[in-house]
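#struct-pred

JT: dropping the chains for the assembly here, can someone run the whole complex?
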Amino acid sequence: MKRKVLSAIVAMGLVLSMFTGCGGGQEAQSEGTAEESTTQESSSTEEDTAEGEKTDVKVALLLSGSANDHSWNQFGYEALMKAKEETDVEVAFSENVKTADQLQAIRDYAAKGYDVIIGHGGAYEDDMIKVGAEFPDTQFIVVAGGKGADPNVLAVDTAPWQYGYAYGWIAANITETNKIGFVTGMEGVSTMNNLVGSWRDGAKTANPDVETTAVYIADMGDVAQAREAAMSLKAAGCDVIIHELNAGMQGVVDVCKENGIYTIGRSESDVEYAPEQILTYTVFDWGPKYVDMVKKVVEGEISGGTYFYGFHTPDTPGFTFTYDADNGWNPEIVSTEILEKFQTEVVDLFAADPIREYTAEDAASGTK
Amino acid sequence: MNVTVLVEYLNSTIRVSVPIILVAIGVCYSERGGVYAMGSEGYMLISAFVSVVTMIYTNNHFISVLAGILSGMLVAGIFSYFTVILGADQVICGLGINFVMLGLTSSLQRLLWGVTGIPRIPVMNAVEIPVLSKIPLIGSMLFNQPIPIYLTYLLIPLVWWIMFRSTWGLQLRAVGENPSCADTLGISVRKTRILGIITGGAFCGLSGAVLSLSQVQTFTENISGGRGWFGLIAATFGGWNPLGATGAGLIFGAAESLQLRLQIMSKINISSYVILMIPYLVALLFILFIGKSRRHPAAMGKFYKKY
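RK: done, full complex below.
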């Protein structure tokens, strides 16, 4: 009996260890902060009439983690505050909304009469579509969502196929071995299909002789695993390795630094760490996008379906390639000629025709 | 498969296996004494954290590895107090240790280096052993590695000898098989078990230090990522014999490395999930088929109360 229990626990442990990478965060669920809800109350009554300038639009934000996690959820919180400053809307937010509670949280805000409800993460998409049908007069926005629903559920994201294509295009232009690699996880998720598929497409378009190899790892937060994946790409002869990982990206950057392979970073500190190996890091500043999407929604410009930011929205860029204050790409590696070609062959291409879609087959693991 | 790829594959197998093997050895010591080593993942985590922090402040690999081992022993000591002295449920306690260590290391990391993230530490360079590293194929796999890996090679026969040829090893196995009999012969069941658990903690600690110092080169949340569990299975696979556990650890390491290479080489479209499953499948198949035939120490999981 004891043995069976033991086997069951070991099996559970294995399964758990696969999921921990995605989980984390605090347990307690707090609905906004005390100050936040009071500001919201007062502004809706006295201050509102006193200033006479505020719009009547009330915006609510749902975060899956804590608003000061120095990461995804904090970006969302800060973006909301920026939107509040620049558009004069009233805001409220809930942090640590667990998956099991999110449906109720969305419904609560809708019932309380909020006009715009933003879910910060693709995980809110299905529940928002469900509640969206119940409250046709409320506008729902899924940040980093993929499909949305007419007429009132809007999925907003940065076009992953645009920067994926750019990575592939640049990599194919600088490779000497004609072999380039990509390390990531979550095969089959639509963002990954678009990212890896477009990376392949961009590379093959720039140079049809390039061999592109994608490796998927089980845990995007596992540095040692990512390291092994990068080592295997190195052994296969790749001299440019792109990645889309969580904490695991450090393993890839380490291997690239040790072996003179070109790669990308995630922040300024990566450029400082491996200035000769890092090509660029991509900044996804959600602040301007929040301001823009709230404005567009309030003005009725967009309301349902999908909306993407990218090369085609130069006023509110979806992403910015950054190397240092003056350069988007590492000037030692990516020459001005390549960048001029990049402008016409990549930027202008997407400015004219922004939407693409790639399938799981385009993004399949292995060499193509 | 050409030769460079093969050599790289063998190298990778060693890198992936060593942390698992070390945990498996630790588990052997704890479980031969009759105490489930469910907390191995937790010992690894705390050691990985402590060794990286020590490395940041001392910049000395030796001291950092030592600090990691000591932290593993300390936490194992706490576990042994609850299970051997107070008689708490070993499985529950072990799982508790894992969760507490995961939370503790993650929060400490954020508390200390919240905004900037924990710094990277200098790489632990591979030390090439002359002549031996020139052996074709297996040369660079076995003899061009960081020092803790060589230490592991030396430790494997040593721990086997201690377990099966030394008096203490005999006592440890005795308290795991029949504690009351061992007690009547004048062996202190408590002391022997506690020592076994703490030895286990030391090996898990070494494993965590190797992982964080020589491979990851920093600390990240949940850095052990299930390696402690693999170690637990490898120990069972190897029949609680350090040599068998080593073999099992190598099989898991080889499976894990193979799946990365299979992805690269596959010309046909197989979902990466199917390939990623390989190491887990190996583990599960083992539990299903071979696991049953292994006879675990008779008193495993049972609290021994002295009257």
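JT: nice. The radius of gyration of chain B is 20 Å. Chain B touches chain A through 62 residues (CB under 8 Å).
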